[in-house]
């Protein structure tokens, strides 16, 4: 992970009920993050309501027949796709050992759980 670029910026940002983030991006405080996590853990996450549509009467019927311009295909340089493929190849190489690391972490968790159950005795069972 030392080869990855350091990108400063907030790790967690608030997202409003429409899925928008504040501009400029402002980091959530530890208390705000804790409140969101606590709400989800208790089964009471904040409810997101549907966006209300504001309907306005049209002033004349000609506005309904608006003609949109024909879409124009962007011109991409010859290296556009090559750079994307190269980026994916680098990511694949950099993350090649990720499944092994996840398996190792799961094995450690399982061992800790088993030793915890052993400490508690026979009255607790693994569900």
Q: What percent of residues are in strands?
A: under 5%
Shape: flat
Radius of gyration: 26 Å
Give a count of the beta strands, DSSP E runs of length 2 or more.
0
The succession of helices and strands, N to C, reads HHH
Low-confidence stretches: none
What class would the helix/strand composition place it in? mainly alpha
**Residue-averaged pLDDT, rounded?**
77
Straight-line N-to-C gap: 36 Å
Assign a percent range to the helix content. 25-40%
How many helices? The count is 3
What kind of sheet is the major sheet?
none
Structure report:
The protein is mainly alpha-helical and 127 residues long. The protein contains three helices and no strands. It is flat. The mean pLDDT is 77.
From the structure above, extract its key features.
127 residues, mainly alpha
Concise summary:
39% of the residues lie in helices and 0% in strands.
List the helices and strands and how they pair.
Elements: H1 30-41, H2 80-94, H3 98-120
